[in-house]
Prior knowledge:
The protein is an alpha+beta fold. It has a single domain, classed as Trna Endonuclease, Chain: A, domain 1. It contains four helices and four strands; from the N terminus they run αβαββαβα. It has a four-stranded mixed β-sheet with strand order 1-2-3-4, with helices on both faces. Strand 2 and strand 3 form a beta hairpin. Helix 1 packs parallel to helix 4.
Amino acid sequence: MEKIKRDPMEMYNSRPTAKIIKQVEIKQSEWSHQLVFCKWLKNQYPNIKFRSDIQSAGKLTPQMQNIKSIIDPFRGWPDIAIYYAVGNYCGLQIELKRLDSGLYLKNGLLSNSKHVQEQNEFHIFLRKNNWKVEFAEGAEQAKRIFVDYINNL
């Protein structure tokens, strides 16, 4: 018998307009970690402004893909942008991956997949422009990165 997974939003006070997520969709997907992290950030640090890219949560129609390629032409943007300056950084951006995503190879180096390398190249650009940018596997690692960032470690 399959164990029923709980909605990761239920531990937070969601607005009445929040949609209920189907139980089958609640897996260890990237967007579910993103949801948990963003709800935590909103709850624990309500004055911190952030933006989360939810493109991984669904597929775009061909028409919307075309529109997106015009209004958002650059690839590799991290999933979460946190607009809070610390030290020499103007903010923090986190590329959130699911747990055991294969982000790092056994030797500790970043995966050589085209997608990850494309993201890393954009991260290098952002770092040159005074952003702190990190990869995180799972919401818990993203939380630690954020807390370390605001504590200026």
